[in-house]
Amino acid sequence: MDRSSQISAIALLGLLSACGGEEGYTLQQVMYQVEYEEQAIEAALETGDLATVASSATAMGRWCADPSFAAEVQTRSFTGDADQFLALRADFLGRIDRLASAASSGDAALTMQGYAALRMACEVCHARFRPEL
Q: Which domain holds residue 45?
């Protein structure tokens, strides 16, 4: 197991322990993992490691697609509408899929475009729901 996989496994175990394993993940827990994978993607893009980009994008997608995350969003108090947040999340998931597909295909230019589109989705959502970040 490489170092990145070890760190991911440790983080997952910690999160499972923190949330009881069966209750799912909070928005904050998901966002920490998204940030972790986003940093891995940035590092991999710098070295041209498209396999890691694909792997990290896929992992990011699994975190964001967790059904308990969507359920929590419906109960949280947001600056705006939870349905709007979930619509932005759906768009984000689509962009993650396109990034993972581009990286898996080995097309570096398309992967860079996919990453730029993914970052734009982050900025749009954060501007609406977390402008202080």
A: 3-129
